[in-house]
Amino acid sequence: MGSYADVDPVIESWVKATGSSLFTEWADVQARFFHLPGDPPFECFQISVRLPQNGQTAVTARAIDTNDHSDEGMDRTWEGPISELDSMLRAAVGTVKSWKARRRKMPDPPSPQ
């Protein structure tokens, strides 16, 4: 079984750079993911890193929720060697930024007071 030990420093660097918090498990299983906020009140995006196996890993960026219900098409994965993790995370964060700047299908709802 793989371990996150070799990739944690790179992940933690991106978590810090984005002002997020790192989640290290999901349903009692090791995991690595963090969230990036979108427009208030509801938007949220997630970047996750697959458990490395045989020197390979993957990074997935996806929308968890969007104000304009356009999250269905926002899911992208990059796969490659552990040595490319930093560039895969850079691409994922950049992709989320482009999703946040998208043309809205409908106006954002007002923020709750």
Mind explaining what this structure looks like?
The chain is built from two helices and five strands, in the order αβββββα. The chain is α+β, with helices and mostly antiparallel strands and 113 residues long. The chain has a five-stranded antiparallel β-sheet with strand order 1-2-3-4-5, with helices on one face.
Q: Structural class, from secondary structure content?
A: alpha+beta
Helix percent reads 10-25%
With helices defined by DSSP (H or I, 4 residues minimum), what is the helix count? 2
Spatial order of the strands in the main sheet?
A: 1-2-3-4-5
Which geometry do the CA atoms define?
Answer: elongated
Largest sheet composition: 5 strands, antiparallel
How many β-strand runs? 5
Alpha-carbon distance between the termini? Answer: 48 Å
Mean pLDDT: 90
Low-pLDDT segments, ≥5 res? none
Q: From N to C, what is the helix and strand string?
A: HEEEEEH
Cα-atom Rg, whole angstroms? 15 Å
As a percent range, the share of strand residues is: 25-35%
